[in-house]
Specification:
Blueprint (H helix, E strand, L loop, with lengths): L26 H12 L1
Length: 39
Protein backbone atom coordinates (compact mmCIF):
# COMPACT_ATOMS: atom_id res chain seq x y z
CA UNK A 1 0.00 0.00 0.00
CA UNK A 2 1.64 3.19 -1.16
CA UNK A 3 -1.06 5.53 0.17
CA UNK A 4 -0.10 8.18 2.74
CA UNK A 5 -2.55 6.79 5.31
CA UNK A 6 -5.08 8.42 7.63
CA UNK A 7 -2.78 11.26 8.71
CA UNK A 8 -1.96 12.16 5.11
CA UNK A 9 1.76 11.91 5.83
CA UNK A 10 3.86 10.33 3.10
CA UNK A 11 6.40 7.69 4.07
CA UNK A 12 9.86 8.78 2.81
CA UNK A 13 10.93 5.13 2.50
CA UNK A 14 8.58 4.77 -0.50
CA UNK A 15 10.47 7.39 -2.52
CA UNK A 16 14.01 6.70 -1.32
CA UNK A 17 16.26 5.78 -4.26
CA UNK A 18 18.85 3.57 -2.52
CA UNK A 19 19.13 1.26 0.47
CA UNK A 20 15.46 0.26 0.43
CA UNK A 21 13.59 -2.44 -1.48
CA UNK A 22 9.82 -2.55 -1.14
CA UNK A 23 8.35 -5.99 -1.76
CA UNK A 24 4.59 -6.07 -2.17
CA UNK A 25 2.72 -9.36 -2.18
CA UNK A 26 2.16 -12.53 -0.22
CA UNK A 27 4.65 -12.79 2.66
CA UNK A 28 5.21 -16.54 2.28
CA UNK A 29 5.89 -16.28 -1.46
CA UNK A 30 8.10 -13.20 -1.00
CA UNK A 31 10.18 -14.87 1.70
CA UNK A 32 10.61 -17.99 -0.44
CA UNK A 33 11.81 -15.77 -3.30
CA UNK A 34 14.30 -13.94 -1.06
CA UNK A 35 15.67 -17.22 0.31
CA UNK A 36 16.16 -18.37 -3.28
CA UNK A 37 18.33 -15.29 -3.92
CA UNK A 38 20.61 -16.33 -1.06
CA UNK A 39 21.16 -19.88 -2.34
Amino acid sequence: DLSPGYAGVENPLYTRKSGVHLMLGDAKESLSEMLGWLK
